[in-house]
From TrEMBL, chains A, B:
Region spans: Aspartate: 202-205
Lineage: Bacteria, Pseudomonadati, Planctomycetota, Planctomycetia, Pirellulales
The species this protein was found in: Posidoniimonas corsicana
Record protein name field: Aspartate--tRNA(Asp/Asn) ligase
EC top class, as a word: ligase
CDD domains cross-referenced by the UniProt entry: AspRS_core (cd00777), EcAspRS_like_N (cd04317)
GO annotation, biological process: aspartyl-tRNA aminoacylation
Keywords: Aminoacyl-tRNA synthetase, ATP-binding, Cytoplasm, Ligase, Nucleotide-binding, Protein biosynthesis
């Protein structure tokens, strides 16, 4: 090794010894007689003094050519810093290395993205991605990468302790055109045939249960060729697991233990087990969303019975049409949101399908002031106020729409207000489960009118219904709830899983309900259906979003900041230029051609 | 959990307790009054007794319907087996579970591939791959998968202990048409552009060193669209690492420690460190190969000076043309290889480019008997015999050809004879390094006459020469040796690495020697060349073949037996049918079409 210590290692107890460090020049101060350099590596910073008498004149001279990001190897005497020059913010702040010699390992041009933590202006993301080799040198990116490594390693340790077998499943798989778009790979050996990159190892892990592996885990790369939203990447990583001879409590129990371990070891937070559980129906009723942020209250109150008693026509007509009137009561919201603030909220909810925003401010003595107050009798206002627990200074916000419409609007409002009014501490972590999801939902697919309104699987077609709901498969699919469970952290779906169907009969029923005929099922999932015939054990599993975990545990908002080499929203790698042009010869061998 | 114990867990000390097991019926014996079943899971086998008085009559009756691979959950009393019925070969062989009840979890059709270890006939590989869900249920496949998991986990533990950061690099990368063929992925967003699946994370890991990560590791999936040999797969896995501020001894030292740990923890073998090292030149001289099998001797002896003194024209003309005459002396080979055996060896070496095989048998009193003995004087025979250390009963085999030709033939002979004469114990493990590889070799590319005879990089164009050989880059490239090192286990290259070039000047010289002009270099590796300008530290790394490691540590010959879902030699997955046809709509979105 060129070095004896890292730049984060030396302490006052090392004073008097000789050390060699390697690293990048983070900053330098020429004080005439010599130079101070902060030398940086991923472990920290150490102050290097190029001063007499330790440093020979020639090295002092040479040191004056050092510039930011030059790479050096420097040997010197470890010494306590002079009185008054200690830096308590730095782990090595009690010492300096008094150079006796150094070697320039490499020069650096002036970097377009400064890797120094002292740099105040972070350049635009495009420049950072183009120069990822510099951007990744920034300490905050290094912390994110090291956090990712640590979370992944702790996960793997945990699953090893629990007898899971880590098994690699193929990246070159078979296309099963459903869900998101597949990335395709033309075959050179079988012209006209294509591999598909996996959207998840779902079918392989079910096969592994049928093959007796009993407890499978993999940190699995998954691919979806979707129109990219801010928080999606074409390739992403999930902690993927599956267990046999279990019920859903066993899988949630395993994940409970993992969450407890990670919270303790990564954040030093004690989590109480079992994690709280809430049904899908309760989550939608109380919070309007299946991944509610439980760091704060601001629950939804249903006023469908009271609201039409007013003279406000909108509420009446919505309820007459089978819709709902629901509201949230924002404590001390009246003060926080002025008329202009409320106008902004009104614009905001329009983005979620609302036509406007009805509101009340609670004034002295319970008086309600609003754009629509005149339509309500005092008695009705009192009844509503009581149900909402309204107090002076509160702001009440309404949504009147179909059930799902009110959920959408009030969830959006709740999330926005929770953030704007700081209803929770940013360091809070809240972990919970949402369970008993519907098996089926009505397809919404503007591109495919034939599918519109038909049943589709809320998770995937291999999900098992609750045993006591098996009968609903035929009598009332809408009522049928699944053995499905989502892990929710701070209002984000951090993972989701289900118990799978392990008998061929139930599987057939579900396929037929989803309109998947025998031939199609055979073509897409033939091997799974075949495997079900040869001794498939009861099994289920879950997948956790690793990228999401790192974001949540690291308090990082941008998914591209937890991935070393991410793609842009247009699925490009700005550093390498992928995707790129290829030689005609390559395409010819694959028997494909570009056809714009 | 449906079970209280696994099928490998119960011992005599558990006798008297009640347990519930789940698993597959491995075999059953109806003895009239009841049934014995061996129940199997991945942990082992347990004997279940469906007999009175423990088992109620109804369950005895029901148990008679059990067939191979039925899945059951069975509860019963753990009891010591009766005297004389203990099975010392089974971990659970001292007990049986006397069933008090059971539940059929799933039935199974008669399996085309029997998962029972008792099955004597292993079906053909095609049937096994088609029914991988059954094949993977066989205990020997389960052992291989668990060994793979264990090796991988121990590797990860080791690198965590040594401060490595595990960083994921992209699967959707940029094509750099060099080396093997890339797998290509058409982009839906950028029509006419393609991603390439990585042949290795080489450039990314070098970027990570330039970004200051210092010690990177990843268990990385790699892809090569090659014509498949028996031991290659389109996708394979390597333990990939890179270190900064190091020299090659540091990297070999890290791997030495890993080998010591794995040998101890996986095989309970003590390995002495440092692992022995041999230069490339020495390996070729003594063994004719750069990954010599050092479990046995049978070294090559050079007779180029002596051989032409005979009247044997072939030797003379080969040496006159600048070639070599080299031989191996097979101890007691004369007995092992009859005339017919030697004929077989003669046929064998023809597959390696030899025109025939000259040989001597050493008979009583050092007399040499052979097809060509008449051409040699007694004195010359004596001199050659002495150099070869020939004794009565030995067999001497010659190769006369250009240097590399003799290497190829004698290495092939040595390997074959080592195996056939059992010159080593199958359980032996020999670990060593081969170092100081040539930087360059002359291109052999029948498809590309322009490249023929030009220099190509033996490893890759980023490999650094030995510091003391820098001058040969210009004066004598052939002489120039690289800071390159291969890990060799039992005659297999188990890994290979190099110190990389970290200064732009040397990198330019190497590119120009390889005929890569500036524009091409910029187009392919622009970001790397750019990163070299901004403070690149000295760095180097290595990649170990994980599939190969599992084969070597598990004594497994077939690479497809260490991969859960491998491809055939035609790159097909016989279970899923990948690669498959895709919808025209999918291709249209990608702006490609099939063009046979």
């Amino acid at each position: 090794m060129l070095r004896t210590h890292t730049c984060g290692q030396l302490r006052e107890s090392d004073a008097g010894s000789v050390a060699t460090l390697c690293g990048w020049v983070d900053s330098y101060r020429d004080h005439g007689g010599g130079l101070f350099v902060d030398l940086r590596d991923r472990y920290g910073l150490t102050q290097i003094a190029f001063n007499p008498p330790d440093t020979p004149e020639e090295f002092i001279e040479a040191s004056k050519d050092l510039r930011a990001e030059y790479v050096i190897e420097v040997t010197g005497n470890v010494a306590a810093r002079p009185e008054g020059q200690h830096n308590p913010k730095l782990a090595t702040g009690d010492i300096e290395l008094r150079a006796t010699g150094f070697r320039l390992l490499n020069k650096a041009k002036t970097p377009p993205v400064s890797p120094s933590a002292k740099a105040t202006d972070l350049p635009g993301e495009e420049l950072r991605l183009e120069n990822r080799f510099l951007d990744l040198r920034r300490p905050s990116m290094q912390r994110a990468m090291m956090l990712r490594d640590k979370i992944t390693k702790r996960m793997r340790d945990y699953f090893e302790e629990h007898d899971f077998v880590d098994i690699e499943t193929p990246i070159l798989g078979r296309s099963t055109p459903e869900g998101a778009r597949d990335y395709l790979v033309p075959s050179r050996v079988h012209h006209g045939h294509f591999y598909a990159l996996p959207q998840s190892p779902q079918l392989y892990k079910q096969v592994l249960m049928m093959a007796g592996y009993d407890r499978y885990v993999q940190v699995a790369r998954c691919f979806r060729d979707e129109d990219l939203r801010a928080d999606r990447q074409p390739e992403f990583t999930q902690l993927d697991l599956e267990m046999a001879f279990v019920e859903q409590d066993d899988i949630m129990g395993i994940i409970d233990g993992l969450v407890e371990k990670l919270a303790k070891e990564i954040l030093d937070i004690d989590v109480k087990l079992p994690l709280p559980r809430m049904t899908y129906d309760e989550a939608m009723t109380r919070f309007g969303h299946d991944a509610p942020d439980l760091r704060f209250g601001l629950e939804i109150v249903d006023l469908t019975d009271l609201a039409p008693q007013s003279d406000f026509g909108v509420f009446k007509s919505v309820v007459d049409a089978g819709g709902h009137v629901r509201a949230i009561c924002v404590k001390k919201g009246a003060e926080h949101y002025s008329r202009r603030g409320i106008d902004a909220l009104t614009e905001f909810v329009k983005g979620y399908g609302a036509k406007g925003l009805a509101w009340f401010r609670v004034e002295a003595e319970g008086k309600l002031n609003s754009n629509i107050a005149k339509f309500f009798s005092d008695d009705l206002l009192a009844q509503m106020g009581e149900r909402l627990g309204a107090e002076e200074g509160d702001l009440i916000l309404f949504s009147a729409d179909k059930w799902l419409g009110t959920c959408k609007v009030l969830h959006a409002l709740r999330t926005k207000i929770g953030e704007e009014m700081k209803l929770y501490d940013e360091k809070d972590m809240h972990f919970s489960w949402v369970v008993e999801f519907p098996m089926f939902e009505r397809t919404e697919d503007a591109d495919n009118p034939q599918a519109e309104g038909k049943w589709s699987a809320m998770h995937h077609p291999f999900t098992a219904p609750l045993p006591e709901h098996l009968e609903y498969l035929e009598s009332d699919p809408e009522k049928c709830r699944a053995q499905a469970y989502d892990l929710v952290i701070n209002g984000s779906e951090a993972g989701g899983g289900t118990i799978r169907i392990h008998d061929a009969g139930t599987q057939s029923k579900v396929f037929s309900l989803l309109g998947i005929d025998k031939e199609t099922a055979q073509d897409r999932f033939g091997f799974l259906l075949e495997a079900l015939q040869y001794g498939a054990p009861p099994h289920g599993g879950i997948a956790l979003g690793l990228d999401r975990f790192v974001m949540l545990f690291g308090g990082i908002d941008n998914i591209r900041d937890v991935i070393a080499f991410p793609k842009t929203q247009k699925a490009s790698d700005l550093m390498t230029g992928a995707p790129g042009k290829v030689d005609a010869r390559q395409l010819k061998e694959l028997a494909v051609k570009v056809d714009m």
